[in-house]
Amino acid sequence: MSEPDPPVLTPVIVEPHAPELLPAIRQDLAPLLPVLRSAAQLIAAAAVAEFAARYAAPAMIDKARQIVAPAPQHKQTILVEEQTTVRRRVTVVS
């Protein structure tokens, strides 16, 4: 008996296909899309609120305090010296 020839590997050209998984995932997640969007909006609003509380609020408070009660002007004392020289001719009989 003769043995069959060993199988030969032949090259196969594989053409890229659109991923079939993404449309299936989209269809599965479609009912959850409004919930995911509202959660993303909530997270974005929280980030804006945190920024405002951390950075913008202190700056606005300082500006508001300056408007309501302006900072006192710094007083400066300047010493002015004045010298007057008086010259008179005095004649004395000697």
> Which whole number gives the mean pLDDT?
83
From the N-terminal CA to the C-terminal CA, the straight-line distance is 167 Å
Low-confidence stretches: none
Query: Structural class of the helix and strand makeup?
Result: mainly alpha
**Can you summarize the main beta sheet?**
none
Oligomer: single chain
Helix and strand sequence: HH
CA-atom Rg in angstroms: 45 Å
Rough outline? elongated
Count the DSSP helices. 2
Number of separate strands? 0
Beta content comes to under 5%
The amount of helix comes to 40-55%
Structural account:
The protein has 94 residues and is mainly alpha-helical. The protein is built from 2 helices and no strands. The protein has helices at 21-29, 33-68.
Provide a concise account of the structure shown.
It is built from two helices and no strands. The chain has 94 residues and is mainly α.
List keywords for this structure.
single chain, 0% strand, 2 helices, mainly alpha, 94 residues
